[in-house]
Write a structure and sequence with these properties.
By secondary structure, the chain is an alpha/beta fold. 39% of the residues lie in helices and 24% in strands. The protein folds into two domains: 3-116, Rossmann fold (3-Layer(aba) Sandwich), CATH 3.40.50; 124-271 and 305-323, Dihydrodipicolinate Reductase, domain 2 (2-Layer Sandwich).
Length: 329
């Protein structure tokens, strides 16, 4: 069993202890800069005072772990990832890996230079629905894919976040696009803004159209300031092809409607913690085998590039090639 540190003991960080254990890791200690959060998590999760630490460096010196699972505020990810890698730990970090491309690239290179595994928690692609959508699209269930529409609307506080709708939410859907279509977009044109009624520190609404290889267009419509009905967190998805249509309701059903034929409903399980456990298993497997996980830091650069291509397109009022974002990192 891989000796693992859990770094960050907020509400979700405590869940990561349970997910890592379920995946087969031996969680040997917990880390949080807040003594109060550390004490509360230790009591709840069964870590005595000798296995609670306020820094990664202290935990490594005392426990000799092999890996770290990091769940902290976005701005803290780079320093925690860098410290863990410099201490010789394999790292699984919550998205986003970083809040800019240059830092993300630096962390990926650091992991590569040290021969360590670095993975990013993009668990949406592990849901049964996304797995099934990929299978249907790649198997040609609706012929040649021509376009995809993804819609996400919710109300969510985002004070203090950089690019909140993109780095906190759309990044999951962007990763799903790459996974389902089995490729990376070539370019995007986008508009990003804040309607102004949510007291946010960054843009909370986005309209973006990506061009994928083969002429496929994927349009994303997202909002963190919806005042009416909301979508599931997985979003609504519609796929148009030369031979029909696929529609995913974001929760339990994929409707497959072949052209000229009767539509059929495919039941799927709602996304739950099992998806994150499976992602964690892939990370642990990468440590054992040396083969990078599907959501490795290197692979995730393309997902992150989609975020910053959208931001650049909106800022500069032009179509942005993904290659230019990746090349500059």
């Amino acid at each position: 069993m891989t000796r693992t540190l859990a770094v960050g003991m907020g509400k979700r960080g405590k869940k990561w202890v349970r997910w890592a254990r379920a995946a087969g890791a031996q969680v040997v200690g917990i880390v949080d800069a807040s003594p109060d959060a550390l004490a509360a998590a230790g009591e709840e999760l069964g870590f005595d005072s000798a296995r609670r630490f306020v820094t990664v460096d202290e935990a490594v010196a005392q426990l000799s772990p092999e890996a770290a699972v990091i769940c902290a505020p976005h701005h803290a990810h780079p320093v925690l990832v860098r410290t863990s890698l410099e201490q010789g730990l394999h790292v699984l970090v919550e998205k986003p890996l970083a809040q800019d491309m240059a830092t993300a690239r630096e962390l990926v290179r650091l992991a590569q230079d040290k021969g360590l595994q670095l993975a990013v928690a993009q668990q949406y692609r592990y849901s049964e629905a996304v797995q099934r959508l990929r299978e249907l699209v790649q198997d040609g269930a609706i012929g040649r894919l021509t376009s995809v529409l993804v819609q996400f609307f919710r109300w969510r506080p985002t004070e203090g976040m950089k690019l909140p709708i993109l780095l906190n939410q759309a990044i999951h859907h962007f990763d799903g696009m790459r996974y389902i279509l089995d490729g990376d977009p070539l370019s995007c044109v986008a508009d990003l803004w804040d309607p102004g009624w949510n007291g946010c520190d960054g843009p909370t609404a986005v309209e973006a159209t990506f061009r994928f290889p083969g002429g496929v267009r994927v349009h994303y419509s997202g909002s963190y300031v919806a005042k009416g009905p909301v979508t599931p967190f997985d979003a609504w998805w519609r796929f148009e092809g030369s031979g029909g249509q696929l529609v995913y309701d974001g929760e339990r059903t994929i409707l497959c409607a072949p052209a000229g034929g009767a539509p059929s409903a495919i039941a799927v399980a709602p996304r739950k913690s099992d998806a994150t456990v499976e992602l964690c298993r892939d990370f642990l497997r990468s440590i054992e085998t040396g083969v990078p996980a599907p959501t490795s830091g290197q692979a995730n650069l393309s997902t992150l590039a989609m975020v910053f291509a959208v931001a650049r397109s909106s800022d500069e009022g032009r179509r942005v090639r993904l290659a230019e974002v990746l090349e500059e990192a």
